[in-house]
Amino acid sequence: MRFRAGRWELTPASAARVRAAARYVHAHRPHRPRVIFSGGWPEASTGAVPPPAGSREGDLMLRAARDAGLGERAELFAETRSRSTLENLLLTVEDDLLAGYAFGPARPLGLVTHEWHLPRVRFLARKVLGLPDRALLDVPATGGEVHDDRRALLAARVGFLGARRGGVLLRRERLMIGLLRRVTTG
């Protein structure tokens, strides 16, 4: 998301995720899928001032999905307090946004994100939700910037080794971010 012309708006990458979610809903419409648009304010970790309530990434994606009529075919929710991909998942669980769903090979959890981000999202979903790979379905979004996420995935695999509980994962993530800042700022 970005601030432009006096208001917060979706970036092309965020808009691409909304379009990918719409394709997923269309393909699974007989089941009335639940879509959770996650994205709070990752820049909070840098000390940046957050946008006002209702203007975080999850809010903006939810609004775009509703404007496109997606709410008629799916249950739509937003998780907007997170500052990281790990927090996206932890807060989705904490807020009971997946309550009542049993995921498995016949009814997998769709992960809507960009191709470059999917390996880390899958790793974290397995870690936080305890789901096997076959209970996760990749729903890649196309468009927007591309990042090399391999180092972040490696750091997550090493840093979260042996951890499963949310509080432990979160403490380790904050420790890794602090160490990274010290290394990169000298």
Could you walk me through the main structural features you see in this protein, from its secondary elements to its overall organization?
The protein is of the alpha/beta class and 186 residues long. α2 (57-67) links the parallel β3 and β4 (75-79). The longest helix is centred in the C-terminal third of the chain and has 20 residues, at 166-185. It has helices at 12-27, 57-67, 85-94, 118-129, 150-159, 166-185, and strands at residues 2-4, 7-9, 34-38, 75-79, 109-114, 136-141. α1 (12-27) packs across α2 and α3 (85-94) runs parallel beside α4 (118-129). The protein has one domain (2-146): HUPs (Rossmann fold, 3-Layer(aba) Sandwich), CATH 3.40.50.620.
Fill in the keyword field for this structure.
6 helices, 186 residues, Rossmann fold, DUF218, 42% helix, DUF218 domain-containing protein, two-stranded antiparallel sheet, 6 strands, alpha/beta, single chain
Order of helices and strands: EEHEHEHEHEHH
Structural class: alpha/beta
Strand content: 15-25%
Q: Count of helical segments? A: 6
Pfam family, one: DUF218
Domain DUF218: 13-131
Protein name: DUF218 domain-containing protein
Organism: Paractinoplanes ferrugineus
Fold blueprint:
Layout: E1 2-4, E2 7-9, H1 12-27, E3 34-38, H2 57-67, E4 75-79, H3 85-94, E5 109-114, H4 118-129, E6 136-141, H5 150-159, H6 166-185
Parallel strand pairs: 3-4, 5-6
Antiparallel strand pairs: 1-2
Helix pairs in contact: 1-2, 3-4, 4-5
Brief account:
The protein has 186 residues and is of the alpha/beta class.
